[in-house]
Amino acid sequence: MMVPEHLEREPDGWVGDGPQTGGDLIGPDSLLWRIAGDTRAALPGGSTGLLQLMYPPLGTAVAEQSGFFDDPFGRIWRSVPQIWATIFEPDGAERARHIRDLHLDIRGVDSAGRRFHALDPETFWWAHATFTWHMFRTAELFFPANALTAADRDRLYAETVAWYARYGVSMRPVPSDYAAFQDAFAAFCAERLEMTAPAARSIQIARTDGIGAVPFVPSSAIRAGRPLLRRLGTLVAIGCLPAPVRERFDIEWTASEQRRFNRMARTVRVSARLVPRRLDRRVLLTQLRLIGAKTRSERYRPAPR
User: Residue 95 pLDDT more than 50?
Assistant: First the structure.
């Protein structure tokens, strides 16, 4: 498949004016491996998805081309194993470029009449920026207090930039350092996000259902656990969101819910000490590989032009 010239990496640097990285920083000793390979990283996933859906080009593409309203959780199970594989698998860069190529034909017009393409640099960057935020949010909420020093934050951000570089797309929108990323992310949340139909539906699901079908989990078990899953879904999907986003869109979040969220986060931090880290990572990655294998035949294929 031919890839547009502006999406490819130049031999000795990045296309455009994005940050420079000295080689691939991702590996077993990286902070990105440490956080993404921890089961606690699953908890902010609902908020990450909401932040993506609130950006109109992404929300429209998901609604129109992934069958979101018929199967809102299917996209998660098809996508997350592939995305995490770009971090952990030996051929992660090749997998990342494959994900990029799946987006070559995703284009359209959003609800406000604005044309978009999934590989517009800003659109593709925002999708990844939410995952960068996801890693920091996981550490902030569910790891011990002050788990990341200032130097660690700079290092982790550089690793997420190296992760993004694996996709072989323009680096122009990528902030130069972590401080710049925080500013850019906050500005996006304050100015560019909207309450799209898929985002509103996701919030409704979090408050009424909690979670839908899960690969390898009997539907009867999901139904039996619905009351607990509904409460957990609300806590993690709404509670992990940046407070300014909740406030901007008047998303219901009570003081009582915040207290329950704080207790849940504290319980996660304490209980995580009881599980050996290597075992935890092995369980998580095994689950992702199994889910990825189960959903392989259903993975998204771009609509024809």
Answer: yes
